[in-house]
Design a protein that fits this description.
By secondary structure, the chain is of the alpha/beta class. Helices cover about 35% and strands about 20% of the residues. β1 and β2 form a beta hairpin. Bound molecules: adenosine-5'-triphosphate and magnesium ion (MG). The site of magnesium ion has 4 residues, from α1.
């Protein structure tokens, strides 16, 4: 990102953000509520265009559909379709790579079921595959969103508080599942996280936002409790 500013009416959500993330990096995005974390992730996956400045992802424009198919997002709001059965919500991760005919047929006869069931097994939900997503708990839905990303096999993972509804054991497992396969393929992870323990265990670099600006960019090993306290104290 080069000089990325995003304004929503009178609100400046991002103010001149310069950020470069390389292959193999695991970046934690931290900062108080309203600091601009979700907006930064939305710019990175192309769903929010910058008001000014430029963004390139995986060497191309976010307008490129093939690039967007290689970017996997776990949204803060999860973006699941409650009336669908879990298998279909997981398969939504692969729609960008499928023809319209295959996507439509999949609603009748789920395509690639073994991969879907394997991903659900990894998040501990194999036995819930044919239930409606709306019948699952908040943490179970969050795990469906993670399974959706696992079947997508993206080269860049953008995760927006992906463990916010999970218990501590599942939270660690979720972060490992989000990072490890993508990093093994030479990709990168950028995750908005509030829990310092998750940041330290699953990331190498911390980028702190306050009032839409990058105010901290440091290796995790150099991060101090005072840095975090300052970040959450900062009023934009
Ligand atoms: N769609 C929108 N319309 C108007 N303002 C918005 C919109 N989305 C975000 N904002 C504003 O932009 C700023 C940054 O919001 P953003 O969602 O990026 O913060 P965040 O760091 O993700 O916060 P949280 O930790 O609460 O999720 C906030 O002031 C917010 O009110
Ligand atoms: Mg947010």
């Amino acid at each position: 990102m080069d000089g990325v500013t995003v304004r929503y009416g009178g609100t400046t959500a991002l103010a001149g953000v310069d950020l470069e993330v390389g292959p193999g990096e695991r970046v934690a995005l931290v900062g108080a509520s309203g600091a601009g974390k979700s907006t930064l992730l939305a710019v990175a996956n192309g769903s929010v265009p910058p008001t000014s400045g430029s963004v390139r992802v995986l060497g191309a424009s976010t307008a490129d559909r093939r690039v967007r198919a290689r970017v996997g997002t776990v949204h803060q709001s999860l973006e699941l379709v409650g009336r669908l059965r879990v298998v279909h919500d997981v398969n939504a991760g692969r729609l960008a790579g499928w023809s319209a005919a295959r996507a439509a047929w999949s609603l009748l006869r789920p395509q690639g079921l073994p991969e879907v069931l394997a991903a659900l097994e990894q998040v501990g939900l194999a036995d819930r595959a044919f239930e409606r997503t709306e019948q699952l708990s908040g943490g179970q839905r969050q795990r469906v969103a993670i399974a959706r990303l696992l079947v997508q096999r993206p080269d860049l993972v953008l995760a927006d508080e992906p463990a916010s509804a999970l218990d501590p054991v599942l939270a660690d497992r979720a972060l490992a599942l989000l990072g490890e396969p993508t990093l093994a393929r030479g990709g990168a992870l950028v995750a908005a996280l509030h829990d310092p323990g998750l940041v330290r265990r699953h990331c190498d670099r911390v980028v702190g936002l306050a009032g839409g600006r990058v105010v901290l960019d440091s290796p995790v090993t150099a991060l101090t409790a005072a840095d975090l306290a300052e970040l959450y104290r900062t009023v934009p």
